[in-house]
């Protein structure tokens, strides 16, 4: 490792660090700056941007945006609210499961964010400490993308692992049960956390000062007017998901072609997802009569496009560096695959805490793990270690702290000593261990 190696590494780390603090478009822009410095300033050959992953994410965002325009997302939020009110005393378990279920179905944490205020109020009305339900729900919903067939993070994982011959179905067979079990672990870790609501000093202070009044069984239902084709759009969307999983998991359903030399090429899984999602979006537009101005006017499209730029820039930057030094890194860390593979998990978690995007963390760390010689089944099983973006509170944590009118959910005074740190760490640790065990069975 010569001086140039350390100079190039410093450029990458600086861009990742600054971009991580900026987040979103800033992360992608910082990655673009890193590529410019490496290529134009230091003469490094540019790596290939993750085109396949970007196209999958774009297709999924397009389809989900159309679903939102048709009213499908609002319908799912309404269903989530109804489910939450059925078991108010068990809200610490039900809240995370309901919120994350809808994230899994839709592929975006947006749908859960609309439900968090309901979790807070249902818990308070049932006299359950809201901190318990809110913290577990935010963590589980945020990491729910690891079990969603339609999430950007899953798109990244599928695109990376398809190069190793791993099918869509095999990835889901590991991540879905891992997520469910880890969610239960995270929920149980806070089930008895803190004092009971009526004994909490901050809550007592707010009641005494008049800042909080009991809802006394009041109606928590948000105002909602269902669009005529909302239900149909959800059905079409779910069918699109099923087709993607089925065709991507059963080789016999995938067309293949033989060239003049006799080599046979089968339709790639990333291309299946891309074409099926775009086709599904078109069917929703035509059948549900979605107006053109609704195609890209929702929050899903805007946040999704920001995610695409973030992945594009930072993944291109890190890919350029790793491609330049693949042999050096492989030689230096060749023993990690056999002697201490879980050290990689710790490194991936540390990276994810400053990247603030599981999709970007996946795009960076999974190819690196493969270059280190780690088996793809190990990386899939321990994927939970790439979801450390909860350590430094972000939008969901800050917003949900405000949703808790009782004051039990707190951000802390030392940045990381907030209400979400315990369920988050429990989820990552348990998910990594459980996923590793399940991968041994699936593969």
TrEMBL record:
<feature type="transmembrane region" description="Helical">
    <location>
        <begin position="378"/>
        <end position="403"/>
    </location>
</feature>
<protein>
    <recommendedName>
        <fullName>C4-dicarboxylate transporter</fullName>
    </recommendedName>
</protein>
<keyword id="KW-0997">Cell inner membrane</keyword>
<feature type="transmembrane region" description="Helical">
    <location>
        <begin position="171"/>
        <end position="192"/>
    </location>
</feature>
<feature type="transmembrane region" description="Helical">
    <location>
        <begin position="334"/>
        <end position="358"/>
    </location>
</feature>
<feature type="transmembrane region" description="Helical">
    <location>
        <begin position="265"/>
        <end position="287"/>
    </location>
</feature>
<keyword id="KW-0472">Membrane</keyword>
<comment type="function">
    <text>Responsible for the transport of C4-dicarboxylates.</text>
</comment>
<feature type="transmembrane region" description="Helical">
    <location>
        <begin position="299"/>
        <end position="322"/>
    </location>
</feature>
<feature type="transmembrane region" description="Helical">
    <location>
        <begin position="424"/>
        <end position="442"/>
    </location>
</feature>
<dbReference type="Pfam" id="PF03605">
    <property type="entry name" value="DcuA_DcuB"/>
</dbReference>
<keyword id="KW-0812">Transmembrane</keyword>
<keyword id="KW-0813">Transport</keyword>
<feature type="transmembrane region" description="Helical">
    <location>
        <begin position="133"/>
        <end position="159"/>
    </location>
</feature>
<feature type="transmembrane region" description="Helical">
    <location>
        <begin position="232"/>
        <end position="253"/>
    </location>
</feature>
<keyword id="KW-1003">Cell membrane</keyword>
<dbReference type="InterPro" id="IPR004668">
    <property type="entry name" value="Anaer_Dcu_memb_transpt"/>
</dbReference>
<comment type="similarity">
    <text>Belongs to the DcuA/DcuB transporter (TC 2.A.13.1) family.</text>
</comment>
<feature type="transmembrane region" description="Helical">
    <location>
        <begin position="52"/>
        <end position="77"/>
    </location>
</feature>
<keyword id="KW-1133">Transmembrane helix</keyword>
<feature type="transmembrane region" description="Helical">
    <location>
        <begin position="89"/>
        <end position="113"/>
    </location>
</feature>
